Records
---
Amino acid sequence: MSHTAHIPSHRKPRRSATKVALRAGVAGGVLSTLAVAAAAGTANAAEPVSETIEMPTLTTDLSAQIAQSADATQQAADTYESRAERDAAASKAAKQAKEDLAKAEKKAEAERKAAAAAKKKAEQERASRSTERTTLSTQSAPGSGSSTASDSVAPASGSVGAVIGFLKAQLGDAYVMGASGPNAWDCSSLVQAAFKQAGVDLPRVSQDQSTMGTEVGTSNLQVGDILYWGGKGSAYHVGVYIGNGQYLDAANPSKGVVIQDLSGYPASGAVRVL
């Protein structure tokens, strides 16, 4: 044994041939890769670069979402259009309602004025009729026929006067059942024709004439009241009160149109139409 065998050597251990060969191979591979990359880089630098972008494929779910979005957009547009139409209709209806209200108010005002004028006219006519009746009741002339009382003289004008004047003009005419003038009458046709002179349209028959106007008592008669004999609504004869307890009527075939005294043939009732 050498006398230096126990002293550690300071020399680096030798690398094995296998490790050296492996490292050489790795280094060579790296250098080769770098060379290839450099060559590729040079080639790429010489040619333009083009990039292809792949568009996504429309799947069933995506198509459904697009359709739903389109439907929602259409519904929103329809909603806005419908709302605009409703607003326009509401505005038009409000304008029309305002116009109708103005027309109704104008019509109501006209009707109120017409009613007031009619009321005033009616009051004036009632006052005139009252004056006429007073005049007729206080004026008298000699009677004729079977009458035992004096006859009232009718004034030249006025509604009641027109009725009485017409009746007196028919004195002496014949009585014929169903006749309506000008020279022959029955009781109801004479009364109907007389009141037509005052603008009053009466029914043709005595039964209906007894239901017209206002019922008055026979103790409170005024000139121009219609007298009836029999029940109200079933009267069989009519005449007209002319004042002083007398009435004028188309009595019967034997008398014709005459003036008679109520005391000899009291009426069942009376109605007032003037």
---
Amino acid sequence: MSHTAHIRSHRKPRRSASSLAMRAGVAGGVLSTLAVAGAAGPANAAEPVTQTLELPTLTADLATQAAQSADATQQAAANYQLQAERDAAAAKAAKQAKSDLADAKQKAADAKKKAEEAARKAAAERATRGTTRIALTADDTSGSTGTSTGTGTGSSTGSSTATGSAAAVISFVKSQLGKAYVSGATGPSAYDCSGLVQTAFKQVGVSLPRVSQDQSTAGTQVSLSDLQPGDILYWGSAGSAYHVAVYVGDGMFVGAQNPSSGVSEHPLSYDQPTGAVRVL
């Protein structure tokens, strides 16, 4: 026996394999537990992030709705603006049309006035030329009987076959020979052409229109080849006549001609009328 056999060895006893395995298992379990806890920890920490992921989706929906609302508002504004422009254009067109109509009416009135003035001047010029021709004829026939005196202010020596109301009209117009011509006058000291005719027929109870245009359509139209004493002669067209007179028979008429000759008697050849109407 060794002399050291009774001395306890200072070396630690060797651990058995089973003990080491157990300890390794425990350590592994602890590490696994820590690993699981570590994995669980970040997972729990990520939950708030998972909740906030829905916010971008909600925000996008709101942005889409806002954009759609803005588009609708812009479209409505564009429609209102278009309607306003159409209304303004319609109002402008109506105003222009009204102005154009007023201008057209004024131009038509001016043209009518000029035409009437030209017709009066033409009638006055014809009457003046006719007076000159009558005066020359009177010089050549001053000794003859049964003809006009040619002065434009005397009465015809020819006989008239008028009777009744026609004779009264003729008697009246002849009684006015020599009186003045004044535009718009109806007697008793002066007349214009239609004023003389109107006043003459008023003596027998016949009411005639005041102006030549209306007097030229007041009765029945008759041919100039079928005239009777008391017929109304007119110059111009029926409804647009610019002068009237009274046929007194024997190819003569009496009328208020113009300022230079006044109420006078002339042959039809002095100024050939356009037509005639019969009211008696």
